[in-house]
Amino acid sequence: MKKIYSALLFAALFSTGAMAQNESELITQPAAGKTVNLYRTTTGYESVYYYGIPHESTGDWQRLVFGDDGAVYLENPINSIYTKTWIKGYRAEGDTIAFQLPQPIYAEEDIFSGDLIYGYLNRMHPVEEDDKSTFRPNEGEENQVLKYVWRNDSLVMALPEGEMIGMCRANGAWTSYAEGTYKAVHLDNNTVTPPTGADVFDGLMLYMDTEGQSQLYPVKYAFNGSDVYLGDLSANIKGLWIKGEKDGETVTFPATSYVGIDTTTACYVYASSAVMGEGTDEMGSKYEKPCLSSDPLVFTYDAENNSLSTKGMLMIHKSKDDDRSTNIFDSYRYAMVNPWNREPAAPMPPLLTAYQPYDPNPWGGPGGLQFSLSYYSADFNYLDPSHLYYNLYIDGEVQTFSPDDYQNVDTEMTDVPYSFYDQYEFYKYDENARTIYFYKEVKEKIGMEAFYIDGDTRLGSGVAEYYPYGDPTGVKMTDANVKQIKSVEFYDLSGRKVSNPTKGIYLRTVTYSDGTKASRKIVK
What we know:
Blueprint: E1 4-5, E2 33-48, E3 51-67, E4 72-75, E5 86-91, E6 96-100, E7 103-109, E8 116-129, E9 132-137, E10 145-151, E11 154-158, E12 164-168, E13 174-186, E14 199-208, E15 214-224, E16 227-231, E17 241-247, E18 250-253, E19 256-262, E20 267-280, E21 286-292, E22 297-302, E23 307-309, E24 313-318, E25 328-339, E26 351-356, E27 367-372, E28 388-394, E29 397-398, E30 416-417, E31 426-428, E32 433-438, E33 446-454, E34 457-460, E35 464-466, E36 485-491, E37 497-498, E38 505-512, E39 517-523
């Protein structure tokens, strides 16, 4: 099969030209009205290495709004690019919903002029240009009406055979993003929750990750008669629960439970029993990975210690029947849930491990401090990560990070949350090890202090300090250099490598100079 071709970089895909819709009509918020949550399954294309590469996905979250203004709004009309915009249509004959295209669905700032440039949704047909296959927008208003059928809580796109909808430049050139088949069913958020009167506990889950390392993660658990609940099982689904049943000391959860909607990465999330199996990467190499199991997830309840434990694996993943590695958000092996004392306390001081001086010369580089954070107090009580922060000090003065100097800082920030990192100027190698870069010369000393902050409560660890030009206390820092980034790679939710990620959801993998890697899911 021929590759579908697109010749230009995505960031430069948009140019000026006349379109049917006014550019100012880019819709980022629909009118008030009845909102329908949709579980979406699609096939189409996405832009990879400037080519249109086949894309398919299931379990994505989308919204349909029947507006009080009489219009109908559909969110993120192309699944392969996460635009966070809407198209506006109307109720047509029978069960049909229609949208007059083209409509703007994407905008970004031109790096030279500062003006907004746009991408437009079109109905398209295949053509051959320069011996390459591509798509061009249909001509005529009647051929730019996009129709869906809304029937029995299901939405299906109706396109003539061979056509697709896709995002094009203002001059009609295709950007490689397109959708050919679409169906969605109405599925609202999970409403399972412990009833009033249930015994609800803060829990700390000790588990083994897929690398064989022991980890801790704060969760909630609850009991109501024979019903047992587990909640807060992943960072983006706080407040959502799954339910199992207790019979004596045995607690059984279904093989797969619906957790709810992850509004951050726009997908439906499930909790499943899992086993370690085998996956294949893009190079054909085999590797170990969690895979869905048909067996129920079984815990043992210890009434004396009010704890739950399992010899199995709990996996949090996107869509109800898909265990591709890029769709797995969390895996908990041999999990044990114990009661957690959330009492506030000062965290242990950061451990400073490496230092890089700031070079103020035009071709110089930023300074860097490598350090390790602790989630524990001095009496070894695990502290709530959402209340943990740190400060950076240069020559005794606390530093405030400004959007003028730091690319991914939106507002001035002095207290840096443990949870904040951008893998650019705030690096996170693992849960504890970090590096922060700074743009100021250190004349005498550099330091860092960790804090537990909750409202007016502010408990500090004391400042850990390093004297680059001689430490009067005699304390030495390792001679190791601050880790440098060797490469940064992006993968989409289908596991394909993406050279130039734009708006959407990706897995970003950073490889450092010492060979270590750090991956995380990002939304652009």
